Every structure is written in structure tokens, then in C-alpha cells.
Amino acid sequence: METDYSISELLAVFLARELNDGEVLRVGVAMPVAEAAVRLAHLTHGPNMDLVFLGGRMNVADLDNIPMPAFGWDRRVVRWAESFSDTGHRFDRVKDWSNHVFFIGGVQVDAYGNTNLIGVGPDYRKLKFRGPGSVGTPTLSTHVGRYYIVLNSHNPRVLVEKCDYISAYGWGTGGADARSKLGLPGGGPKYCITPLCIFDFTEDTRRMRLHSVHPGISPARVQKDTGFEIVMPSSVRTTPPPLAEELAALRTRVDTAGRLRT
């Protein structure tokens, strides 16, 4: 196992391990950790995965030495991959999305995994902070088999007891049946991933629970920087570090510019 890695690299490897061959992996804009994770998974153990970046679909597992010039959708990638647009990954076939995986950010995330991309403030007509908006997030989070909340920062302004607005319904106000009682077909959020830790959700209340802390981070630090009371297990593990081969693949085949190392 490697000891010299960044937190972003740690999170990318953690997410990559979560992804299974044959899944359709959907990544939106401005999510470099999630984008690196799906590319790493595809190139190392998921040759039959489909990667969807902002509606552009690709499968590049059979090609060697693929340059990845930038995170975010870059049409230069089309030169190196079979790339096409079809109806299979668009919103007209949501009933077939049980094998799809999505990644969500948020300007706020609450104790039950509801996320807010709309803005912060009590008056929607005059927000203190305006987010990017929901775009397709409500539809995707409703129908995909599971999704991951990926945050770039961990503080009480982001992780709040209750979101000012909800753009993606996680586990509502709690309860094992929070989604099924509303008839929501998708599996909901599995993990919330931050620069300090990994959260999962309890099976009964669906409230955020500390799953693991990253090296050098204590559970007390996580609670101090979280704006709600988290479920604290009696024993908290450390997030597993990358293996040497995972880190090598990430750096030489995916993040060749070293953006995740800064």
C-alpha cells in the first residue's frame, strides 16, 4: 500500500473500488474526483462499463495510452474513443436505470442525504448564495440504482441539519421506507464522501453514520466540522489507502496532469 497520496487520490480510488463492470456511470460537470474514479474503474476492472460525461458516452477500455487532457467533458477525447450519442443514456428510458450509478455534489447536504444545489437563504428571490441549480439531478437521483454524494469541502455550512432547499431527495426525514413510501424507484445515496471521512446511512433511520475517517483525522474532528449530530459507531475504521498499482494507474493513465495531487 502507498503512503504518499493526496486525499483526492484516496477518494478517487475508494470510489473506483465501488463500481462494478457492466454498470453505466454518469458524471456531471465539475466533479474531478468522481470523473477520475469512473475512468480508473473502467480501465482497471470494468471493460464493459459505459461512461457518460454530460451526455457523451464512451468506452475506451480496449485502447492503450489514452491521453486524458483535462477533467470535464473535452471533445478531444472523441479522437481516442468510440463515442456516440443514443437514446439509451438519456431521460426517455429512465425505467431501465437500475444499473446506472450517479454522483452528486451540493452547496448543502443534510443529515439524511438530501442535497441542495439551488442556493442558501430563506428567501428564494434573494438568496445569500446561488448554486448552479438542479438541472437533471432530481430525475437522475430518483431513478438510478444508487448514487454517491461527493463533496469538495467539509464544514458546518455545507453539512447542515436541514437543507434550505432540496434538489435531490436522499432519505427525506428518515426511516427505512423514506423512499419506497413515495414510490421512488432508485436506490438512493449509498455514501457521502468528503475530504475528512466517508459517511454511510443507518439501516433503520437512514441518518448519516461515520463509516471511516481518512488517515490523520479523528472522529472528534469530523463531528466538530459537521453541522448536525452524526451517528457514531463504537469503532471507526480508517479509509483504506490506495494500492501501488491503483495509484500508478490513476497517475499514468487517468490523471496524467496531476490535478488530483495538488
Describe this entry's structure for a reader.
The chain has 262 residues and is an alpha/beta fold. The protein has helices at residues 7-18, 32-44, 137-143, 219-224, 244-254, and strands spanning 24-27, 50-53, 56-59, 82-84, 100-104, 108-109, 115-116, 119-120, 129-130, 146-150, 189-193, 197-201, 208-213, 237-238. The strands form three sheets. Strands 4-3-2-1-5-10-11-12-13-14 form a ten-stranded mixed sheet, with helices on both faces. Strands 6-7 form a two-stranded antiparallel sheet. Helix 2 (32-44) packs across helix 5. The protein is globular.
The largest pleated sheet is described as: 10 strands, mixed
Q: How are the strands ordered across the major sheet?
A: 4-3-2-1-5-10-11-12-13-14
Mean pLDDT: 87
Class based on secondary structure composition and strand pairing: alpha/beta
Unreliable residue runs: 62-88
Distance between the termini: 20 Å
Share of β-strand residues: 15-25%
How many beta-strand segments? Answer: 14
Proportion in helices: 10-25%
User: What's the helix count?
Assistant: 5
Topology:
Elements: H1 7-18, E1 24-27, H2 32-44, E2 50-53, E3 56-59, E4 82-84, E5 100-104, E6 108-109, E7 115-116, E8 119-120, E9 129-130, H3 137-143, E10 146-150, E11 189-193, E12 197-201, E13 208-213, H4 219-224, E14 237-238, H5 244-254
Parallel strand pairs: 1-2, 1-5, 5-10, 10-11, 13-14
Antiparallel strand pairs: 2-3, 3-4, 6-7, 8-9, 11-12, 12-13
